[in-house]
Amino acid sequence: VDRPRPLVAGNWKMNGLMRSSAKVLGEVHAGYTPGLRARVDLVVCPPATLVSAFAHMSVGTRVGIGGQDCHAKESGAFTGDVSAEMLADAGAAYVLVGHSERRQYHKEKDADVCAKAVAAHRAGLTAIVCVGETREEREAGKTLAVVRKQLRGSIPVDSNSHNLVVAYEPVWAIGTGLTPTAADVAEVHAAIREELKRLVGKADHAKVRILYGGSVKPSNAAELMAVENVNGALVGGASLVAADFLAIAGAY
Ligand code: PEP
């Protein structure tokens, strides 16, 4: 019915120097063939130092570029931070907000994540809002409650299917090689879709992309991407290798 167009995003984290990374991006461009382009959107989120160069290199390729975080304010005395407007100015169209590494290492709370998503929208960027439970929370049976609470706290009221993407990333699955079962992913994504009905509105909620992230690789992509309400992937480690990233996108 209203199946959203899939989106596969690569989160390079704090990896990538100009010379070697330009080569990887070039391979991604070359592998994003018309056949693949017809089926799936591709986004690369390099470190902030590479956003401008990557955006320039990607003009005309339909590969979107995203930041990995942004400050909530437009400008000011915030040494070391990067605003959403600066990312947009550098050519980004997306920004990750609320990644678990930001929540963990920078103590970001849902309200902080929401403010960053508001900033992304203000700057004309699509916010990729990340949520997900820890291992302890899953073992305690709190997964759905945790994810619902994060969504309610992190998603701005002006969100729609153009300016919002949700990424479900179980913290225990990130960088560990562990993944939830297809049934577990289906359960969480269904709960996210239901929550979006209230947060985004009835008209548009079905078109919001909900990505799965956490140890996605070519060997498990087809199974995970086939799950109901999984509209793409957020890929960490495997996105640093163009052939793997493209193979994951090719699961669609
Ligand atoms: C991530 O950090 O967004 C992620 C999904 O990492 P990985 O694919 O390496 O588990």
TrEMBL record:
Pathway participation: Carbohydrate degradation; glycolysis; D-glyceraldehyde 3-phosphate from glycerone phosphate: step 1/1; Carbohydrate biosynthesis; gluconeogenesis; Carbohydrate metabolism; erythritol degradation
Name of the protein in question: Triosephosphate isomerase
InterPro entries, A to Z: Aldolase_TIM (IPR013785), TIM_sf (IPR035990), TrioseP_Isoase_bac/euk (IPR022896), Triosephosphate_isomerase (IPR000652), Triosephosphate_isomerase_AS (IPR020861)
Family: Belongs to the triosephosphate isomerase family.
Swiss-Prot/TrEMBL catalytic activity: L-erythrulose 1-phosphate = D-erythrulose 4-phosphate; D-glyceraldehyde 3-phosphate = dihydroxyacetone phosphate
Annotated compartments: Cytoplasm
EC supergroup of this enzyme: isomerase
Any one Gene Ontology BP term: glycerol catabolic process
Record's keyword annotation contains Transferase: no
Keywords, alphabetical: Cytoplasm, Gluconeogenesis, Glycolysis, Isomerase
Function: Involved in the gluconeogenesis. Catalyzes stereospecifically the conversion of dihydroxyacetone phosphate (DHAP) to D-glyceraldehyde-3-phosphate (G3P).
